[in-house]
Amino acid sequence: MTTLTTAVRSTVAVNRTLIASATFVAFGLADILLFGLFSHGDATFAFAQFGAKVGVPNLVLPAAPVAYALGAVSIAIGVLRATVPLSRAGRRACIAGAVLAFVISLLCWADAGNSTALNVINLLQGTVVYSIPLILGALAGVMCERSGVINIAIEGQLLLGAFAAAVITSAFSSLWLGLIAGSLAGGLLGGVLAVFAIKFLVDQIILGVVLNVFASGLTGYLYDRALVPYQNRLNSPVTFSSVKIPLLGDIPIIGPVFFDSTIFLYITYAMIALVQVGLFRTRWGLRVRAVGEHPTAADTVGIKVLATRYRNVLMGGLIAGIGGAFLTIGQVGSFGKDMSSGEGYIALAAMIFGRWTPLGATAAALLFGFSTSLQSILATLNVPIPSNILLMAPYIVTIVAVAGLVGKVRAPKADGQPYVKA
Questions:
Q1: What is the per-residue pLDDT across 333-390, written as a single tens digit (0 to 9) for each?
Q2: Superfamily of domain 121-405
């Protein structure tokens, strides 16, 4: 049996290596045959915004030769992946190199021959902004699933948080009150998830889907009955203005992207640090991870398993609610039906892609945010790609990343398993 298991694992590893290698070669061929052959002229990239204190010269690249060169690099990466055993870091470097080469080739093709430069700062700013609700949603998922509770209801928590933030901000003209209300709304749905999953032992996946449908139906009904008739009173919130951090905000390229945004970005920084340090550098985090891995053993050493799960699910809901509030009072300025548009599910995918770690989930969320920002930039450049295909980009990236790039991952051992104290 052991020999058979070893053989199967070896076969799976070989197949995964061949698939990865073929994918990199396909990326390289696309760089050459699509972006290289159909690029005419130079591509210009701008690295400074209008009025910036420190100017950065534009970068002008011959689009076709760059695409050819990057295509050759991707093919070489594919050959290397197939012929040389690589460490985990090496495999990740291969993925990053091939994806980066593909993106640069795509941008060169999109801007080739255009009179206006493609502003890289706008692309990166959009990446960070679009990633905020995904990062917060993914952190909510990490908080829940590290304690052993599956949180499919991130979508509903985002939606309910967005609704509450818009209504409270409009009614009381207070952005901070709206932010708190959005967080509490996400926490309220997290409380419902906790009670039914932990106390009544309801199937957690089905429960999460039901809560998403409930949040969609409730907010849709209230939108029609209250927000549409009383638009000016209940659905016209102001939004947070950008807050530029002195000195840091003036650093070329980095400053406008990371240090000149709304308060939601800085809250996101704090949440990433708190969850990462809390889970992996504190006694509390050790107990949470013990509950998620082996609740019976945790219980025998005095850890309150059910209380830990309740606490984490509630905190996860509060974090997701902040991400929902961003959608209305941090970005759009009004609530719309189902405005979360599947971002909760993308956040769940980011959590899985990030291997149930805060930093990994953040990196994955940034990847998905980049795909959304990229489709917006490509739409403004009038590339010959149908708009519906561009709008599908974030979801396509989600499917490819989770199905093709995530590789072998392991969730917390007790994830989704109800615990009944003996």
A1: 999 999 999 999 999 999 998 999 999 999 999 988 998 898 888 888 878 877 777 7
A2: ABC transporter involved in vitamin B12 uptake, BtuC (1.10.3470.10)
Q: Where in the chain is the domain with CATH 1.10.3470.10?
A: 121-405
pLDDT band at 54 (very low <50, low <70, confident <90, very high): confident
Residue 144 has pLDDT above 70, yes or no: yes
**Which residue do the tokens 């770690």 mark?**
357
Predicted confidence (pLDDT) per residue in 171-216, tens digit:
999 999 999 999 999 999 999 999 999 999 999 999 999 999 999 9
